[in-house]
């Protein structure tokens, strides 16, 4: 399990790690830079071999030094390399490798002559690899007008038909990309050509927080032997950030199995509460996911008598109630290990004292796990007006961006703003918050952040959030901790990528998961 959760550093801490590595090991920076270049060379050897010409864009700092050092190994292995430098290097390490490749007669020209080189590439019609070593994690923003024009030229070239065999590789960070802006896809570059149009990103020495959002399948972590464990033990990090990675299908299959000596409550017991009129399918889908994937016993308290019109409710083995009952007065709740509250509910009125009383009851059951979803996620005004509204660390709010915004009033699509609000409100509510998007973020009550960077367009359909709550409930009711439950549930949903359907319905997704 530990290896599937990876430490992530922001740019500030990544720079501190770089310096710590030199101080801790007494190994000079130019040797670390050489190791980084050699690791890059071996990691991308097939990419280098598949292009006739390699152009490396070098800045003045250590990211430019990485480019000079990489050029050394490429030149020594017989590749055709051209350096386009913004200016003379400033760091000792970068100067060392610039002087080294000068001895090898590697051509170095002015970055601002890029347009001439791009035209010669187009006329020659051969494949070219363009490597971005301009700014790295110490990048300067905003870019100068001259560099913005360079980016514009690169975008025009990339979008031309003559560049179809070319490739764009960024080292450690994408030059010009502002991590404060919303990253939606590579297609952004066609609209906003203000940063390097990377096809691939190589992260050296550590996984970087500000690179989050760049597609995982096009991003590779390149280890170079940094003493990361010692750095974390001896330093206070500015943020505690981790990446959750998908668990293996064997781990998932094992986790769904019931033990030989299991009984229905040990296999998982959960009360599902929700399903207002017209939205009964949501609570039924959530409960069906729980039972269909291995849950032992579940009950639905629906807020609509119309639930009996759904074929899924006809199963005589299901427990479904449509009479009004407060959850803590339900005898089944007293025996259940978990409760899902919210699928198929609308937002309650601020003055709706019944719902407020139910929220306030949750703190009285710290031994039980609660998943609070959809309309039962409290709004910002309710949270602000009721300082006594607090939950416990076995609670998790599962919110898409609209619900998250209603809860926190972040009022911004910039994901850095979401992060700050998520940390604040998870601490304030003393509960976990799972922000569900094409990438997802789990905020813990102690300020830790967990990233799930596995975009999956097949999940962009109604009901997948209800499926997720049902799967989460299964793990929580089996006494997995919240973090483990989230990772297992997201990993299960990630299996949907293998479906042959381009746009499966949520019920089709559930049937597929049951077969897998």
N/C terminus separation: 21 Å
In percent, how helical is the residue content? 25-40%
Shape descriptor reads elongated
Q: How many H/I helical runs?
A: 19
- State the major sheet: 12 strands, mixed
Oligomer: single chain
Structural descriptors:
single chain, 516 residues, alpha/beta, twelve-stranded mixed β-sheet, seven-stranded parallel β-sheet, 19 helices, 39% helix
Describe what you observe in this structure.
- The radius of gyration is 27 Å and the shape is elongated.
- The strands form two sheets. The protein has a twelve-stranded mixed beta sheet. A seven-stranded parallel beta sheet has the order 4-3-2-5-6-7-9.
- The longest helix has 15 residues, at 11-25.
- It is of the alpha/beta class and 516 residues long.
- The protein contains 19 helices and 19 strands.
- The protein has helices at residues 11-25, 29-43, 45-49, 62-76, 92-103, 114-124, 145-158, 188-191, 228-234, 249-256, 280-292, 331-335, 353-361, 380-385, 401-408, 415-429, 464-477, 482-494, 506-515; strands at residues 5-9, 53-58, 81-85, 108-110, 128-133, 167-171, 200-204, 207-208, 219-222, 241-244, 269-274, 297-302, 319-321, 338-341, 369-373, 395-400, 432-436, 440-443, 449-452.
- Mean pLDDT is 91; it is low at 182-190.
């Amino acid at each position: 399990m530990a290896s599937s959760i990876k430490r992530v550093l922001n740019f500030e801490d990544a720079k501190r790690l770089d310096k710590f590595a030199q101080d801790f090991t007494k190994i000079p920076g130019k040797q670390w830079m050489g190791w980084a270049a050699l690791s890059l060379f071996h990691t991308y050897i097939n990419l280098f071999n598949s292009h006739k010409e390699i152009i490396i864009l070098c800045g003045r700092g250590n990211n430019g030094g990485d480019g000079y050092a990489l050029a050394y190994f490429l030149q020594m292995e017989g590749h055709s390399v051209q350096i386009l430098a913004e200016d003379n290097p400033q760091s000792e390490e970068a100067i060392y490798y610039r002087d080294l490749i000068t001895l090898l007669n590697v051509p170095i020209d002015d970055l601002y002559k890029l347009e001439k080189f791009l035209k010669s590439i187009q006329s020659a019609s051969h494949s070219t690899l363009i490597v971005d070593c301009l700014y790295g994690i110490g990048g300067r923003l905003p870019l100068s007008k001259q560099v913005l024009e360079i980016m514009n030229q690169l975008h025009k070239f990339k979008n031309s038909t003559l560049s179809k065999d070319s490739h764009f590789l960024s080292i450690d960070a994408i030059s010009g990309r502002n991590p404060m802006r919303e990253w939606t896809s590579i297609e952004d570059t066609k609209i906003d050509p203000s940063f390097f149009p990377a096809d691939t990103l190589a992260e050296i020495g550590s996984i970087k927080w500000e690179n989050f959002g760049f597609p995982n399948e096009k991003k590779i972590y390149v280890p170079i032997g940094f003493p990361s464990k010692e750095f974390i033990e001896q330093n206070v990090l500015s943020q505690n950030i981790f990446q959750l990675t998908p668990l293996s299908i064997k781990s998932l299959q094992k986790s769904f199995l019931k033990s030989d000596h299991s009984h229905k409550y040990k296999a998982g017991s959960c009360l599902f509460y929700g399903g207002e009129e017209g939205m009964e399918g949501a609570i039924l889908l959530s409960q069906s996911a729980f039972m269909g994937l291995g849950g032992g016993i579940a009950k639905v308290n629906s807020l609509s008598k119309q639930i009996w019109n759904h074929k899924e409710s006809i199963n005589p083995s299901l427990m479904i109630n449509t009479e009004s009952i407060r959850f803590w007065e339900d005898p089944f709740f007293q025996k259940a290990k978990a409760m899902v509250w919210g699928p198929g509910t609308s937002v309650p009125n601020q003055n709706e004292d019944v719902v407020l009383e139910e929220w306030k009851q949750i703190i009285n059951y710290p031994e039980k796990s609660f998943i609070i979803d959809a309309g039962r996620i409290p709004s910002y005004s309710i949270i602000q007006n009721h300082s006594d509204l607090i939950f416990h660390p076995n609670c998790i709010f599962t919110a898409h961006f609209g619900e998250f915004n209603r809860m926190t009033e972040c009022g911004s699509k910039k994901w850095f703003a979401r992060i700050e609000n998520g940390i604040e409100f998870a601490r304030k509510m003393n509960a976990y918050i799972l922000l569900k998007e094409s990438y997802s973020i789990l905020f813990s009550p102690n300020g830790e952040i967990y990233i799930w960077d596995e975009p999956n367009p097949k999940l962009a359909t109604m009901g997948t959030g209800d499926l997720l709550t049902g799967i989460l409930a299964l793990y929580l009711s089996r006494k997995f901790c919240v973090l483990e439950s989230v990772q297992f549930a997201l990993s299960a949903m990630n299996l949907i990528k293998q479906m042959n359907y381009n746009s499966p319905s949520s019920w089709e997704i559930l049937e597929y998961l049951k077969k897998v």
